[in-house]
Amino acid sequence: MITQEVFERCVMRAALAPTVHNTQPARWVRDENVLSLFCDTNVGLTIGDPTGQDAALSCGAVLEAMILALSADDLSADITLTGNDTAPNQGLVAVAHLELKSGTQDGLHEQLENRFTWRGRFAREPVKLFGWTRADARFVMDDPGRAWLAERNDWASLQIMQQGGFRKELVDWMRLSDTHPRAGLDGMDRASMQMSESEARLAPFALVKFWSFLNMFGVTRRLTAEAEVTLTAPLIALFNIDNSENQVDAGRAYLRMCLEASLLGLAGWPMASLSDNPSTNAQVCERFGIGADRRLVQVIRFGEPTGDAPRRARRPLSEVIR
């Protein structure tokens, strides 16, 4: 039903899905017409994601991308989720098994190549949603709501960045020079981070070596602040799911939201601190009416990008297919 050529093409397209820090933890195994998705927990974030929730969300996004890629070849799959723990440093952990069958094309697959994250400013033009809504997302478009989220995001970001281990792990996943051995393969490069050459050179020193000194004089607040850029986003989405829903399924839905936004000409940037910090997570839920039966998974700002998509860093097939 599926040839090795089609399988490899689908794996490459599935790898276009967003993953935390661009760690790309998904690994694939093919046994005839059964595909198995594994999470390489050895690339997990021991400080930033100690429970593996972000890794599971990332694998869920890759899983949905694979389903969409398969649909381009009129294939579908019966999916069995394993429910396994994806916390760091467990090696390869099975996430899902896909038994292939005939299917129909899902037009959203065409957005896999078009979607990208955008950390920079957005265009001033009003966003046109053409009736776009989602049951799993609250769209915040009013000025007071966006301003409040921008302020809370800056506060939460600074709180998280005060953790030395988190900062070091973040820097470890930065690829700020083309001479970095993993440049173009994984992690976050200068283009995706919207950094100038001088900012890229100084970032490791500011975030690690001189952080304590800069923090004493209040400079770190300015280093981590994004409110000015956040306020250029005409739409901030509060992605939330039912408490009974698992993180892999959440990742699948999250990717579809991002692809639907791409269809409207929008790019996004996660404001992960708002959902990761327990205090701001609770505050966001209370202010925007997200009930106790649901959980806030991610906050992401959307808008029309003011530049071209940055180069994608992706692992070669030899690292993804086992």
TrEMBL record:
Gene3D superfamilies: NADH Oxidase (3.40.109.10)
InterPro entries assigned to the protein according to its UniProt record, in alphabetical order: Nitroreductase-like (IPR000415)
Broad enzyme group: oxidoreductase
Gene from which the chain derives: acg
Organism superkingdom: Bacteria
Single Gene Ontology MF annotation: oxidoreductase activity
Keyword Oxidoreductase: yes
Keyword match Oxidoreductase: yes
EC number, UniProt record: 1.-.-.-
Protein name: Putative NAD(P)H nitroreductase acg
Keywords: Oxidoreductase
